[in-house]
Amino acid sequence: MKRIVALLLAMVMVLGLVACGGGGGNGDTPNQEPTTTPSEPSEPGDTPPAEPGAFVPVTYEWDVLYDNVFGPFWEGLQDGLAAVDLDERLVKMAYAESKLLASGAFVPYTGIGGNYAINRVVPYTTASVDWGNDTNRFESVLFLTDSYVSTEERAVLKEKWNELKGTGTYWEWAKNYMLEQGHTLGTDYASTYGGDPTTWDCMARWDSNDSLFVCRTLDKLVKYDCENVMQPALAESWEVNEDSSKFTFHIRPGVKWVDSQGREVGEVQADDWVASLQHVADCGGGQEELFCGVIAGYLNYVDGSDPDFTHVGVKALDKYTLEYTLEKPFSVFLTMLTYDGIAAPLCRSYYESQGGKFGAEFDPASSSYTYGSSPNNIACCGPFLITSWTEKNSMVFKPNPAYWDPDSIKINSATLYFISGSDPLQSYNMAQKGEIVGASLNANSLEQAKKDGVFDDYHFQTRLNSTTYGNFWCLARLGFANFNDANRMVSPQSHESADSIDLGAGVYTSDILDDAARAHSAVNNANFRLAVNMAFDRGAVQAQGNGEELKYASLRNSYVPATFSSLTKDMTVTLYDGTSVTFPSGAWYGEMLQSFLDDAGVPVKVWNTEIDGGSSDGYDGWYSPENAMAYLNKAIEELAAQGVEVTKENPILLDVPTNSGDPSSYNQMVAFQQSLEASLQGYVKLNLILGDNYDDINNTGYYTEKGEEINYDYGVTVTGWTPDYGDAGCYLETLAKYTGRMTKPFGFWG
């Protein structure tokens, strides 16, 4: 036991010595038994209680650990955030991301989309912009009731959308075209969802599920139409001063707030945005970071240095005039205003009637505080009301009878059905019966669609959107069981020992703690992290879920998508380390990121000119067993110098959460395990920690409130990020030292 504690304490002292790191496969047939035997996955279960032991979980200053791992990235990010010129900012953001990827602490993996699907929804009849929540709204959706949209029809619609976008005429053209083809259009929309919100107050937390549904009940100042053109919404008009540091909005008069029954509870006015911005900060759920450093004085209120909210740069000049004053000019501020939660209004009077308070008096634990506790405890000003909700079953939306723009609502109702993921054919079968508008085709349903004869005529490949999922290393792991007692996934109890230790969340043998200590030391070595990041065949893994044809389709190789932004002029920029770089007008973000990685000697490809003329998507730019072993050999030397021996007889063991309830997901993780262990030649082994469903997996990381509750060594696509506005910084700021909510998966936040 003393040896274990000594090793744990030693890890704290050597953190400052962490070194900085400078194809494809064929996969198995989906659902086929593995051809080789991976290290045995553990079965979840409880261990009999034991007397508390003397072990104390390793503690240290998290900001010191952050600096050791993310220091160069953080300096680069600050340099980029300080740039007023958007082109200069873009170059510096690409440089900052190069430092992030070189750290090995985070590796991009997939986006959302790229798979085959069948659907009755007429394409491009809702917004498809890359940021904000407008893509989740469905008031303008067109869909068929007689058949899926055919592959041939989709090609015609895509061509016409590109021709008409910006004219405001596409939606009507698409409607007439589908009617001319003999189709019948529906009015009662139905689809699926995979997780209920934890709160119906879309301002209280940052998780997408907590705004995904409520966004249909709220309007914002502006919105994107189906041609991705920004249009006035609750603001009839606005003005921007000369240097884009002050934005003034004129609120549409007469817009009503209603409750879930459609009963009027107030009128929308400028003060509702003042109330919402303060409420978001009071909640401290993560959304506040979006406007910290953007709106004047907001960071000071959030961090408590100035508790007077009247000093924040949001003012109701009169009942219908709203003014934002920014910390510095920021011309893309308008694109931030399509994000539900922090950019949506809050009916102050209704909120207070539900026990809500502001500032120091805010108390979410108060028995009188009911705002957001259910769909019946929110005020709405958007196109829909949530009229029915049964947890893990369904929710129903009906048009808001008091909506200010009733002609824009094209459907009579929308019903979403809960899908647990345990049945890989559930969505497909529901689509075939006409119960929902369509379904993505996983490896199982793809084969079924081909057998049923619907694939050839109706399939399409979905667009890979701007959401980026990645793999995260828990650099400060303290949790070895899920934070919620109801669904506990525990670290393997596979070693026999007379000694057992109680960490407060479960009982572990001293050998387990020894493995955890060695893993912790390895995880905090940059060369080790890079070795693992390059050791698994992403194509072979994805083939288990998407099929061999599309095994690369959903892959993404950079955090910010390569074509998210490009330079509008030639740029010569001096970086924070004093070096000077020059890029031409039109250079894409991914081109610049690749240049910086090449200069740093990091052998990954994030910009591939053979894919659509240049892309970070649709190929595996990280997998290389040769490079993986080269990094691992460096790591083994460095770990040996710290007193941590790594051999094939005594490998590093990493805990990786795995959903055993979904065959496709489980097969993917087995393929991941096989590929990685083969590439690293037995020096690294994976413990696939089994959960019964997606909730179990989400409870290891995504649903946790604090970083100290993270329960894994390596989280595979444990979470992802969707951009909130039209600038690369909206991705990278999520990893900022003090305010970045996406630092939680590394074990830091909270």
Question: Would you write up a description of this structure?
Answer:
The protein is α+β, with helices and mostly antiparallel strands and 750 residues long. The strands form nine sheets. A four-stranded mixed sheet has the order 3-14-13-12, with no helix packed on it. A four-stranded antiparallel sheet has the order 6-7-11-10, covered by helices on one side. It starts with a helix and ends in an 18-residue tail after the last helix. The N terminus is likely disordered.
Structural class: alpha+beta
- Number of helical elements: 21
Number of strands: 24
Task: Evaluate the radius of gyration.
Answer: 26 Å
Break the fold down into its secondary structure elements and pairings.
Layout: H1 2-14, H2 62-81, H3 86-103, E1 106-110, E2 116-119, H4 151-164, H5 170-180, E3 188-193, H6 209-212, E4 222-224, E5 230-232, E6 235-240, E7 246-251, E8 256-258, E9 264-267, H7 271-283, H8 298-302, E10 314-318, E11 321-325, H9 333-336, H10 348-353, E12 384-390, E13 394-399, E14 413-418, H11 426-432, E15 438-441, H12 443-452, H13 455-458, E16 460-461, E17 468-473, E18 500-502, E19 507-509, H14 510-523, H15 526-533, H16 538-546, E20 571-574, E21 580-583, H17 589-600, H18 625-641, E22 652-659, H19 663-679, E23 684-691, H20 694-698, E24 714-721, H21 729-732
Parallel strand pairs: 3-14, 22-23
Antiparallel strand pairs: 1-17, 2-15, 2-16, 4-5, 6-7, 7-11, 8-9, 10-11, 12-13, 13-14, 17-24, 18-19, 20-21
